[in-house]
């Protein structure tokens, strides 16, 4: 009997300390995520979900659990890992803290069974809510970045592929599509991995052309489909709601079908004849004008667009453009990227103040 009581007396403080540490860890991780939802994404809904879970955890953090805290006697305070000392970007920061919250909740769920079965059950349900938060957070960030992206670079084969892409990213590029129709899959897989890492390091979206399987394999942000590729609905079943799906369109009928199918954005073109779409007649600026008036989702004018004809495309109503050769074959990709950004920003600014200008002359 005495041994049993001694065992209980030994176990109870340890369980309380475990619960205390992990309740703190989960709340801290949620607060870090909440701050990004609030200030980085401007999403009151996501921020409020984080706050609600923090408050629920605070309610579980009883005084008897807190009283067991022994920070000076905790050997874990001296433990660290090099990966915890730096973050390569916001993606890694968010992922690290989501994992921290999920792991902490799992610990509370298991050790909570020794303290309160109700606590264990509540925290189990919260863990599923965090999984949902993770999915929603990633999807929300991707779609917000898509909306803010006005320049879209589509790659073409190049001996200096990675140097060109990094130079464009340094120039402010936030949306990249890896397009390679000829290389072996092993090469494409290797290149896609490297490009995704580059894009995420600079906070840019990474899209794979055509290949849904490669997009899944490298955890790309999405896929771009042509008219001859699998339907958007089928791609959505494979990719889920988190990832972005784009669709090429060449006329109003294809545009309407892509929108009805659930594409997140569309390509509008080719505006001009281009070797990347050999044998395909140019859609012309008339289709750009149609898209400007009728597309409810983000769209990118594409096809033969360069510095010489950019203004004509913008005058036709485009606010977003996709380019290939203009940057991939440029001697100074960073400067060209910055030039496109400056022109696109100028047009956005003029169009945003136009109603005020009109009103001032009424």
UniProtKB/TrEMBL annotation:
Domain (Thiamine phosphate synthase/TenI) ranges: 151-327
Record-listed E.C. numbers: 2.5.1.3
Class of enzymatic activity (EC top level): transferase
Amino acids binding 2-[(2R,5Z)-2-carboxy-4-methylthiazol-5(2H)-ylidene]ethyl phosphate: 274-276, 304
Positions of the UniProt region annotated as Disordered: 64-87
Cofactor(s) annotated in UniProt: Mg(2+)
Keyword Lipid biosynthesis: no
Pfam families found in the cross-reference section: ThiD2, TMP-TENI
GO cellular component: cytoplasm
GO biological process: thiamine biosynthetic process; thiamine diphosphate biosynthetic process
Region (Thiamine-phosphate synthase): 130-362
Residue ranges constituting the ThiD2 domain according to the UniProt record: 17-135
Pathway the protein contributes to: Cofactor biosynthesis; thiamine diphosphate biosynthesis; thiamine phosphate from 4-amino-2-methyl-5-diphosphomethylpyrimidine and 4-methyl-5-(2-phosphoethyl)-thiazole: step 1/1
Catalytic activity: 4-methyl-5-(2-phosphooxyethyl)-thiazole + 4-amino-2-methyl-5-(diphosphooxymethyl)pyrimidine + H(+) = thiamine phosphate + diphosphate; 2-(2-carboxy-4-methylthiazol-5-yl)ethyl phosphate + 4-amino-2-methyl-5-(diphosphooxymethyl)pyrimidine + 2 H(+) = thiamine phosphate + CO2 + diphosphate; 2-[(2R,5Z)-2-carboxy-4-methylthiazol-5(2H)-ylidene]ethyl phosphate + 4-amino-2-methyl-5-(diphosphooxymethyl)pyrimidine + 2 H(+) = thiamine phosphate + CO2 + diphosphate
Residues that hold 4-amino-2-methyl-5-(diphosphooxymethyl)pyrimidine according to the record: 177-181, 209, 248, 277
Alphabetized CDD domains for the sequence: TMP_TenI (cd00564)
Sample GO molecular function, one term: thiamine-phosphate diphosphorylase activity
UniProt-listed InterPro entries: Aldolase_TIM, ThiamineP_synth_sf, ThiamineP_synth_TenI, ThiD2, TMP_synthase, TMP_synthase_cyanobac_bac
Keywords: Magnesium, Metal-binding, Thiamine biosynthesis, Transferase
Region (Unknown): 1-129
Keyword Magnesium: yes
Binding site for Mg(2+): 210, 229
Stated role: Condenses 4-methyl-5-(beta-hydroxyethyl)thiazole monophosphate (THZ-P) and 2-methyl-4-amino-5-hydroxymethyl pyrimidine pyrophosphate (HMP-PP) to form thiamine monophosphate (TMP).
UniProt cross-references to PANTHER family, sorted A to Z: THIAMINE-PHOSPHATE PYROPHOSPHORYLASE, THIAMINE-PHOSPHATE SYNTHASE
Protein family according to the UniProt entry: Belongs to the thiamine-phosphate synthase family.
Name of the molecule in the record: Thiamine-phosphate synthase
Protein source organism: Crinalium epipsammum PCC 9333
Species lineage: Bacteria, Bacillati, Cyanobacteriota, Cyanophyceae, Gomontiellales
